[in-house]
Amino acid sequence: MLDRKEDLSDQELIDCILERLYGDPPPLGVPKEVLVPFESANPSLYEEFLSAQRGSKVTVRIPHRGDKRELMETVTRNATEEFSRHRLKRAADHNSRARALNDLQQHLGLPEAPLRIECYDMSHIQGSDYVGSMVVMEDGLPNKREYRRFKIKSDQGNDDFAAMEEVLTRRLTAYVEERGKPVAERSGKFAYPPQLLLVDGGKGQLSVAVKVLEALGLDEEIPVASLAKRFEEVYLPHRSEPVEVPRGSEALYLLQRIRDEAHRFAVSFHRELRGKRMTTSVLDGIPGLGEARRSRLVKELGGVTAVKKATLEELQAISWLPDSVAQAVWDKIHSPSRRDLR
Given this model, what pLDDT does residue 87 score? Predict the structure, then answer.
């Protein structure tokens, strides 16, 4: 469920949804066919990724006719109606936020209502462009000025636990260093601890967070919990069973909202890095195609894949792109060396 409009194209939104649904293997597995209302910005990448998850070929396509087209229309209509109900039910007001925070304190056994919650998530595709995100809610509302993004510096491969450990260590070490300075010398960037540290995942991610807190001597100061995607279960340290946070409660909804926001923020950063890398590899070094023109071209055509598929006539039809630059772009994409790579 998307609570707010983001600056995403239809193709980028489809990419975000595919990553959100299939980033971790779903309980029912990956289907052999995924129907979407708009084409992905990079369909071959996601078909390859989903095929690897399934162990056999997966296609991602738009249904244009027949029963599957009718099914897509029904799904779209149902989603529109559900979103309207959702917005009415979850209209944010101070009282519901206060109840959610107080309920969280009670259910999680916190010393105080968590007015500042930080949530962390990782994003990658098969280990490439690994990134982490930190999002912050204060008084139950997102504080985007406090959001932080992390490039994973060490070579983690597909190791979410090692990546999470690196991100939490960097953030909490910065807090310890800030705390040791005189107030006038603190930068404010990581000067405040969370009253609840939430990680996206289950017992494994939680154990990593506990390890980092203990290593820095913060385990008695900062409460920590994890929220597992599969069954929306909340785990606390030193407990084998999940904590009972009532389904449909404002408390669980608040945790889900910050977890989903952390995932969205991580995915958007991952997509940004991946897009820069892909754009550089294909469109770098073309005479007359500077950074501004390159970004505008990719955005206007709907992604790097669309640029690669464009004909020379389509490129030259772009009013702001000189014909000579359009020719250079086409020549670079269709040069013999690039055809050999494909």
Answer: 61
Both tokens of 271, joined, read: 């997509």
Distance separating the N- and C-terminal Cα atoms of the chain: 37
pLDDT tens column, 10-44: 888 888 888 878 877 777 888 999 999 988 888 88
Written as one letter, the residue type at 150 is: F
The span from the CA of 225 to the CA of 201, in Å, is 10
CA atoms within 13 A on the CB side of 289: 25
Q: In which residue are the tokens 């309920």 written?
A: 103
Q: How far apart (Å, rounded) are the C-alpha atoms in residues 285 and 305?
A: 18
Rounded to whole angstroms, how far apart are CA atoms 222 and 297? 46
**How many Cβ atoms are within 10 Å of 2's Cβ, its own excluded?**
13
- Can you tell me which residue has the tokens 């959610």? 100
The reported pTM is 0.57
Structure-block tokens of residue 225? 């919990």
Q: DSSP class of residue 183?
A: G
Q: Is 155 helix (H, G, I), strand (E, B) or coil?
A: coil
CA 264/CA 268 separation, integer angstroms: 6
Residue 112 tokens, joined: 């105080």
Question: In which element (H, E) is residue 227 found?
Answer: strand 224-228
Spatial distance between the Cα atoms of 154 and 163, rounded to a whole number of angstroms: 8
Look at residues 166, 171, 160 and name the one whose alpha carbon lies nearest to residue 203: 160
Please give the Cα distance from 310 to 330 (Å, whole number): 8
Domains of the chain plus CATH, in order, are 10-89 (no CATH), 94-272 (3.30.420.340), 284-341 (1.10.150.20)
Cβ atoms of 247 and 253 within 8 Å: the answer is no
pLDDT tens profile 229-261: 778 899 999 998 999 898 888 899 999 999 988
Q: What is the pLDDT of residue 82?
A: 82
- Cβ contacts of residue 275 below 8 Å, gap of 6+? 298, 304
Comparing 208 with 232, the larger pLDDT belongs to 208
